[in-house]
Automatic annotation (TrEMBL):
The keyword Methyltransferase applies. Residues 1-133 form the DHFR domain. One of its GO terms (biological process) is methylation. This is DHFR domain-containing protein. InterPro entries: DHFR-like_dom_sf, DHFR_dom, Thymidate_synth/dCMP_Mease, Thymidate_synth/dCMP_Mease_dom, Thymidate_synth/dCMP_Mease_sf. PROSITE patterns: DHFR_2 (PS51330). It comes from Salix viminalis (Common osier). One of its GO terms (cellular component) is mitochondrion. Keywords: Methyltransferase, Transferase. The keyword Lipid biosynthesis does not apply. One of its GO terms (molecular function) is thymidylate synthase activity. SUPFAM superfamilies: Dihydrofolate reductase-like (SSF53597), Thymidylate synthase/dCMP hydroxymethylase (SSF55831).
Length: 267
């Protein structure tokens, strides 16, 4: 970070914990060398050289640039910049420091806090391996195959999970997280209630797990679930309902095919 960024951090929060703080400044009068976990460098290049050498290279895994404006202008388009993490805030603020424009045509879902809509987004560098390969071989593709994939995305395992959230599994997990955080509570027939949003809802999680284990065991007795405080099948196991189907209380009979396979039950 630059000197002004360092000075903008409240005293009680600096140095930033859990990391080595590198302050870039050319000022000869700026002296914080006595502060723990803080070093001073004159430029980004000298800072990266320092971190790549012993003893820092033994403990430093990632280098993050957090500002200010001049340092970001130098870093965003630098070859060593693997990714950009940016919080996009959809409102107007009076600012006096700016960074280069970033293509925000691809963004993540936003959320609203205190009437301010925002989202945290990560952009990763994509390189054209075909173009790089051709340029390194005087325009000749080394394997002679012109149908190779045009783009290759390097895997940055150190990046936040949002980098990979376009994967369907991450979209599902994010939906669950959104329901837990911002879902609307409403009642249901089980008495446990649900958290829901338009088009999706989160049900009683322990009940879901216990019911799954109940299915896997091959049981068709609702009493097994009732003993664990799970009552989602009580309506189908009532005395009145079961008398009409000649079953003992709690016996749901052949509920799903999974139980049929275990017990050889038939409809």
């Amino acid at each position: 970070m630059g000197r002004k960024t360092w000075e903008s951090i409240p005293l009680e929060h600096r140095p930033l914990p859990g990391r080595l703080n590198v302050v870039l400044t050319r000022s000869g009068s700026f002296d914080i060398a006595t502060a723990e976990n803080v070093v001073i460098c004159g430029s980004m290049g000298s800072a990266l050289e320092l971190l790549a050498a012993s003893p820092y290279c033994l403990s430093i895994e990632k280098v993050f640039v957090i500002g200010g404006g001049q340092i970001l202008r130098e870093s965003l388009n630098a070859p060593g910049c693997d990714a950009i993490h940016i919080t996009e805030i959809e409102t107007d603020f009076d600012c006096d420091t700016f960074i280069p424009a970033i293509d925000t045509s691809i963004t993540f879902f936003s959320k609203v806090e205190k009437d301010i809509r925002h989202c945290f987004t990560t952009y990763v560098r994509v390189r054209s391996s075909t173009i790089e390969s051709l340029s390194q071989n005087n325009g000749v593709n080394p394997d002679g195959n012109s149908e190779n994939s045009k783009f290759e995305v390097k895997e940055f395992s150190f990046l936040p999970k949002m980098v990979f959230e376009r994967h369907e599994e991450h979209l599902y997990l994010r939906m669950v997280q959104d329901i837990i955080s911002d879902g609307n509570l409403k009642g249901d027939r089980t008495g446990t209630g649900t958290l829901s949003k338009f088009g999706c809802q989160k049900v009683f999680w322990r009940g879901v797990v216990e019911e799954l284990l109940w299915f896997i065991s091959g049981s068709t007795s609702a009493k097994v679930l009732q003993e664990k405080g799970i009552h989602i099948w009580d309506g189908n196991a009532s005395r009145d309902y079961l008398d009409r189907h000649d079953r003992e209380e709690g016996d749901l009979g052949p509920v799903y095919g999974f139980q049929w396979r275990h017990f050889g039950a038939s409809c």
